[in-house]
Automatic annotation (TrEMBL), chain A:
This is ATP-binding cassette domain-containing protein. Keywords: ATP-binding, Cell membrane, Membrane, Nucleotide-binding, Transport. GO terms for biological process: peptide transport; transmembrane transport. It holds the Pfam family ABC_tran.
UniProtKB/TrEMBL annotation, chain B:
It comes from Stagnihabitans tardus. PROSITE patterns: ABC_TRANSPORTER_1 (PS00211), ABC_TRANSPORTER_2 (PS50893). Belongs to the ABC transporter superfamily. GO terms for cellular component: plasma membrane. Signal peptide: none annotated. Transmembrane segments: none annotated. It is a peripheral membrane protein. PANTHER family: D,D-DIPEPTIDE TRANSPORT ATP-BINDING PROTEIN DDPF-RELATED, TRANSPORT ATP-BINDING PROTEIN. Pfam families: ABC_tran, oligo_HPY. Gene3D superfamilies: P-loop containing nucleotide triphosphate hydrolases (3.40.50.300). It is found in: Cell inner membrane. This is ATP-binding cassette domain-containing protein.
């Protein structure tokens, strides 16, 4: 369904080009759910924006992103417009900036179904709001985004994406504003979508519990590069890359005894790591060698680290 | 007591109808708590239950419809403008929607130093730039980001700018509305640890709104659980963690996703069911009755009051 090969994203910042995404490759089959995890600023959202043709003005994408065989990156803008919102839908990280503040929520949803008569589109929109557990959906549809709570806006975005019945769903942190009981319902809804309509899903999340519940496979990003790609079970059972290991070790567990401070990964990420040679994780890695600092490790059989494959 | 709420209710005016003017919509009912220096009140609850509204009312960004808010014993609604301005400098908020909360036309540097200019007039530009760089660094972002505009930041970077902006004025109280929701676990831990350090060193008091029960457990001294604008449980944090009392609290506790695919997969399709009640037509009885597997007929007709049970207050007699 989706095959990304060597995707790069560069931004012009103060006259220089800064690389945010550096050669990301991944593929997702029909009905499959791929999780995209990684440190804040590692390029997760930019991967999704590049696929949607929605990079900021100072951004450029390179590489290939084949959707049902067509390259999204070189496609004519009009052709991409046709795909977007219908075959490919996206749930944005920041719902307030993605919703139109001056339009009633129901109208924004009904617009997705522009091919239907207005009344019918409205009815479908309300039904979808009910499926994402918005209470009193019929009345709520007549309200504006600022009258919704953070989590309700997030569910409006989810409803909008689901109404399109897309072949590919890109979801950027879709459940961060939901309490865990509603989050579980929404994740199950996404899971059903993948199973029943064979939608392929690429979901960005920081919550490894979300990955565990929903994802078949996981791609781990750090500093704009793929560190590891694995089946969900394999990754949780035996993470191979030192960064993946750090992520799992830093994941809080409710059953564990309470320590005075939370576990972090020592060190801080380098700004602009993707523009520099060497492994982006090298400065924080316990296994680091001289070679790691000079030569960028390639992703081979799901892992970009020579030290653990030796 | 640095921050206190007494039977606080908060309402939104509803848009004027054609004929009548409807009563304001009350979305937070009868909340009371006391917060001391250096302590944290954790607030959890369902989406739309009024947490952000309560947070804004605690900072007097929304008026109290009933009851009162007290800042170190004084009601901000009765303060003279100059006193209010000074008192406000000591009370900050980290907003839930990080990118929308930043002014799109201002660089990070400007966003960070603007509160300084108003709260500490006389501070030099170099001083305020240093303060901005230092506080940003403590949230895990280098000074390189000072020149960026909000749309040039990732979600988690914008969230950290929001945190830095709240910290820079060295406040006594911060209302944190989902402050770490966009951060990866390592940076989340770094920010949580930073807040804990500031509490120990400076006696910073926090109201910490979050859906992340693991983080709430780490941060909070007391936990308040809300459902549809009402407190259903209020308890010391460790007691709450060990044995949540209200059926909604228990449902929350059970729904926390664990990083274990096999366990999670077996829970698929078993999420809590039932309709969520609406603020526009609140049920006469318990706000959780429609989803509670132990609900009795009387739960749907009479609303249970908060009553002591052990160290906790619980709004469920069963
Ligand atoms: N318009 C822009 N100009 C310059 N740099 C940008 C721009 N937009 C994003 N960036 C940078 O690109 C990098 C990747 O950003 P991205 O939004 O993809 O991160 P992310 O992985 O989604 O992080 P988060 O989890 O915090 O949302 C970040 O370091 C960010 O600062
Ligand atoms: N400006 C407004 N006008 C009218 N109603 C509003 C307004 N802002 C919020 N509401 C309503 O008030 C209720 C409480 O909203 P609030 O944002 O406080 O919830 P929350 O607990 O923070 O939820 P979340 O976890 O989803 O952020 C919701 O029903 C919401 O729709
Ligand atoms: Mg992002
Ligand atoms: Mg909120």
């Amino acid at each position: 369904m989706l095959e990304i090969k060597g995707l790069t994203v560069d931004f012009r910042v103060e006259g220089r080009m800064v690389r945010a995404v550096d050669g990301v490759s991944l593929s997702i089959a029909k009905g499959q759910v791929m999780g995209l995890v990684g440190e804040s600023g590692s390029g997760k959202s930019q991967v999704l924006y590049a696929l949607m043709g929605l990079l900021a003005e100072n951004g450029r994408a390179g590489g290939q992103a084949l959707f049902q065989g067509q390259d999204l990156l070189t496609m004519a803008p009009r052709a991409l417009d046709l795909l977007r919102g219908k075959r490919i839908a996206m749930i944005f990280q920041d719902p307030m900036t993605a919703l139109n503040p001056y339009q009633r929520v129901g109208d924004q949803l009904a617009e997705v179904l522009f091919h239907l008569p207005k009344a019918q589109a409205w009815e479908r929109a309300v039904a979808m709001l009910e499926r994402v557990k918005i209470p009193d959906a019929a009345a709520r549809a007549r309200r504006y985004p600022h009258e919704f709570s953070g989590g309700m806006r997030q569910r409006v975005m989810i409803a909008m994406a689901l109404l399109a019945e897309p072949d590919l769903l890109l979801a950027d942190e879709p459940t961060t504003a939901l309490d865990v009981t509603i989050q579980a319902q929404i994740l199950d809804l996404l899971g059903e979508l993948a199973a029943e309509t064979q939608t392929a899903i690429l979901i960005v999340t920081h919550d490894l519990g979300v990955v565990a519940r929903l994802c078949d496979r996981v791609t781990v990003l750090y500093g704009g590069r793929v560190m590891e790609e694995a089946g969900a079970e394999a990754l949780f059972e035996a993470p191979r890359h030192p960064y993946s290991q750090g992520l799992l070790a830093a994941t809080p567990r409710m059953e564990a005894p309470l320590a005075p401070r939370m576990t972090t990964i020592p060190g801080t990420p380098r700004a602009g790591a993707a523009s520099l040679p060497g492994c982006p994780f090298a400065p924080r890695c316990a296994l680091v060698t001289d070679r790691c600092r000079k030569e960028t490790p390639q992703l081979i059989e799901g892992i970009a680290c020579r030290e653990v494959t030796r | 007591m640095i921050l206190e709420a007494r039977n606080l209710s908060v309402a939104y005016p509803l848009p004027r109808g054609l004929i009548s003017r409807p009563a304001p919509l009350t979305v937070v009912h009868d909340v009371s708590f006391r917060l001391e220096r250096g302590k944290t009140l954790g607030i959890v609850g369902e989406s739309g239950c009024g947490k952000s509204t309560l947070g804004r009312a605690l900072l007097h960004l929304l008026p109290a419809a009933k009851g009162e808010v007290l800042w170190a014993g004084e009601n901000p609604a009765q303060m003279a403008p100059e006193t209010l301005r000074k008192a406000r400098a000591k009370r900050q908020i980290i907003f839930q929607d990080p990118i929308a909360a930043l002014d799109p036309r201002m660089t990070v540097l400007k966003s960070l130093t603007r509160p300084l200019a108003t709260f500490e007039p006389g501070i030099t530009r170099a001083e305020s730039r240093d303060r901005a760089a230092e506080v940003l660094q403590r949230t895990g972002l280098s000074a390189d980001y000072l020149a960026r505009y909000p749309h040039e930041l990732s979600g988690g970077q914008a969230q950290r700018v929001g945190i830095a902006r709240a910290l820079i004025a060295r406040p006594e109280v911060i209302i944190c509305d989902e402050p770490v929701s966009a951060l990866d676990v390592s940076i989340q831990a770094q920010v949580v640890n930073l807040l804990l350090d500031l509490q120990e060193d400076l006696g910073l008091a926090l109201v910490f709104i979050s859906h992340n029960l693991a983080v709430v457990r780490q941060m909070a001294d007391e936990v308040m659980v809300m459902c549809l604008g009402r407190v259903v449980e209020q308890a010391p944090a460790e007691a709450f963690h060990l044995s949540p009392q209200h059926p909604y609290s228990q449902a929350l506790r059970q729904a926390v996703p664990e990083p274990d695919p096999l366990a999670e997969r077996s829970r698929r399709g078993k999420a809590l069911q039932g309709e969520l009640p609406s603020v526009h037509a609140p049920p006469p009885g318990c706000v959780f009755a429609s989803r509670c597997d132990r609900a009795r007929p009387e739960c749907r007709t009479t609303r249970p009051e908060l009553a002591p049970r052990g160290a906790a207050l619980v709004a469920c007699p069963y």
